[in-house]
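Folds vary. Our protein:
___
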Amino acid sequence: MSKEYPLAELHRHLDGNVRLETILDLGRKHRLPLPADDVEGLRPYVQVTTPQPGLLAFFTKFEWMKKVLVDYDACRRVAYENVEDAFREGIKYIELRFSPLFMAEEHRLDPVGVVRAVCEGVDQGMRDFPVEVRLIGILSRTYGPELCWKELEAILKGRDEKVVGVDLAGDEIHFPGSLFVEHFRKAREAGLHVTIHAGEATGPESIRQAVLELGAERIGHATSAPQDPSIMELLAERGIGIEVCLTSNLQTGVIKSYREHPLPIFLEQGLLATLNTDDPGISAITLEHEYRVAREEIGLSEEQINKLKENAWKVAFKPPLQP
């Protein structure tokens, strides 16, 4: 009988997981012009209720999550609540990722202060809830290479031991990974692991570039990988983890239905696929919801479900002792 693995998640944006109640509370506290005065009224402004016409439309749902990050206390609160949310979902280990520039931008906070506030919020969360948390700093490619140098500097200067990796996220179409080779060289030299959003909005070549030039140990989404058998071979040979986000891919229009997702192909070809929520505050989901979708909509067996859970522990950057 195969071992049953506890829940672990590797791809969750903490700045894409701000509670509706928190947005209302912070908005009122700081007298922001909220678009609604109750949770249900706010919901369509923050959460996806219909599939979005592409990634950039999906990104607009972040607007109010960003606007309420008025100060470092707000950043600490959001980080803390992410840990609590993970605990409520039964998650034992989670890697939360965030973009310091994205969180700092609206109210001109210091990105270094944002990194420190997030670390402090997670620290308090781990003291209050039995969840192991690691952090991944995002370079938001949409800001361009020059500002991403500042973002990397903030991550390196503000981090503590929980910050174990870096990611490249944002507009994959207009800001290819080739613009960020030196950024990730420096990050690797600083001892950080690397995961890259690739093959989501573009073709499989971006995945090859992420692995060979950026040093990716994991790929976020990778939905276009099966279009090129050589990419699938590369991912298998190097043991690259795949961070699958089913509902997010449906909502952004990357796939037209759950049944079209390449997750079964990843598993059949022995790739280290894992299951994740991406931006659960926007998608209005939990990790358990994604496992339910994998069973009921995609038709994965219990053996395949447990393989996803096992893979998450295998490719996690710095988990506690193996479960």
User: Anything to note?
Assistant: Residues 25 and 158 are 27 Å apart (CA to CA). The first strand starts at residue 7 and ends at 13.
